[in-house]
Amino acid sequence: MTIAKKKCEKCGRSLRETEFFKMKSGERYKLCKDCLTQYIDNRDRSTFDWILKEFDVPYIKEKWVELTNRIYRKDPGKFGPKSVIGSYMRTMNMKQYEDIHYEHSADTLDEARAKSQGKEYKTKTITETLDKNELKQKLDAGEISEAEYRTLTEPSSLGENIDFVDMDIQEEEKKEEKPSYIKDDAYWSNQLTQEDIDYLLLKWGAAYNPQQWITMETMYQKYAEEYDLNSDREEVLKKMCKTSLKMDENLDVGDITAYKNLATVFDQLRKSGKFTESQKKEEKREVLSTIGELAALCEQQGGIIEKLPQYDPNQYPQDKIDFTIKDLKAYNYHLCAEELGLSDLIESYIEKLDKAERESMDLNEGLITSDEEAAADQLTDQEVQEFNTAMLENDVEAEAEELLRMIESSEV
Q: What contacts 153, CB < 8 A, 6 or more positions away?
């Protein structure tokens, strides 16, 4: 099934036809809903009256106020530029209002219908519809209170045109004392150049008004000054700004449940993007892993590192590293230049061993060997017998002397 699409003449997007309001002729308007309604303030008729004129839809004040209050009470958090005008135009395009056009705009539906029929319509006040004399008699008879009597007979002390009482309960005089930028998005639009508007529109989207753009952009720039941003972090930060904006809006209208849910999402986004203070400290403690990072850090702290003069560490060693390099170079040079091969080293070593062995043999010539010494030290049988006889005689002589000594001592 092919989905019919249409290209917006302002933003250039190709969107479904349902994203464009339908005119009474049946054609879709040239601008999409987002672009057409982005500057609407539902409290200010001048911001959307030209749209009603373009679509030939009458402005019926009582209907607009009624619909606006109902939509606002239903979901204050989603109340925005597109909230009312779409529903209002669909209502005015119903069959029962087909004879009423933009030129018949009026405060009430009865007045608009009277205009469409060419009749004069006179707005009646409450004091004209009530009989003051009758009310006075009831007051005197005690049937009604003085407060009720004054309410029904005296003119209102409030302004004549108080709209959206559910959203703005202040008196009309106080409203007029407020600066225009409190509710007027046109004020914020005038503070931006066309380049600013194009930039903010592309960055934050058409679903927000200029005041919301500025709020989110201010928060974005504060974080960008404190943290290094990459592509992933930028996306997380943009979602944080949008979530923060919605949090404030729900808090302003007293929707605490929605605020708590958004606060949870905001905290999760901060942690995932590493925008918390503890994660910021961890980044500062990160170990330098390359010489380039070390050099960059030194230059940030003390300026550009000056290049040292060229010198030969072999001639002018500066520290232990230079001495070590010098020794290694000397060893490698000797090994490669003077010792041309391991085979020469081995042959030289063998020759030295042979020479040492020959010198040892020359020193041993004329000496008695160990075998000759063993043969010379061995006794004959006669020598052994003579030795035993001599030892026996010595033992007998010693025993005789000891016996004689014992006898002499006993006689005494």
A: 127, 130, 132, 135
Query: Nearest to residue 54, comparing CAs of 102, 15, 95?
Result: 102
Quote the tokens at residue 177: 């004392």
Q: Compute the chain's Rg from CA coordinates.
A: 56
pLDDT(243) > 90? yes
Among the residues of 9-74, which ranges form H helices?
33-37, 49-54, 61-74
Largest CA distance in the chain: 186
- CA dist 220 and 214 (Å) reads 10
DSSP string, 367-412: S--HHHHHHHHPPPHHHHHHHHHHHHHHHHHHHHHHHHHHHHHHH-
Q: What distance in Å separates the CA atoms of residue 4 and residue 2, rounded to the nearest whole number?
A: 6
Interatomic CA distance for residues 226 and 315, integer angstroms: 50
Residue 401 counted as domain residue: no
Q: Is residue 238 classed as helix, strand or coil in its secondary structure? A: helix
Tokens 């919301």, located at residue: 212
Domain closes at, from 240, 275, 310: 275
Choose the final residue of a domain: 101, 123, 145: 123
- Give the span between the Cα atoms of 74 and 165, in whole angstroms: 15
pLDDT at 158 over 50: no
Query: Are both 37 and 98 inside the same structural domain?
Result: yes
Structure-block tokens of residue 263:
């606060």
What is the dihedral angle through the alpha carbons of 322, 324, 330, 332, rounded to the nearest 10 degrees? -120
Amino acid, single-letter form, for residue 205 = G
- Helix, strand, coil shares, percent, the chain, to 5: 65, 0, 35
Q: Is residue 299 part of a domain?
A: no
Instruction: List, for residues 36-66, the tens digit of each pLDDT value.
Output: 888 888 888 888 888 888 888 889 888 888 8
Task: Give the domain extent around 115.
Answer: 21-123
Distance CA 289, CA 222 (A): 29
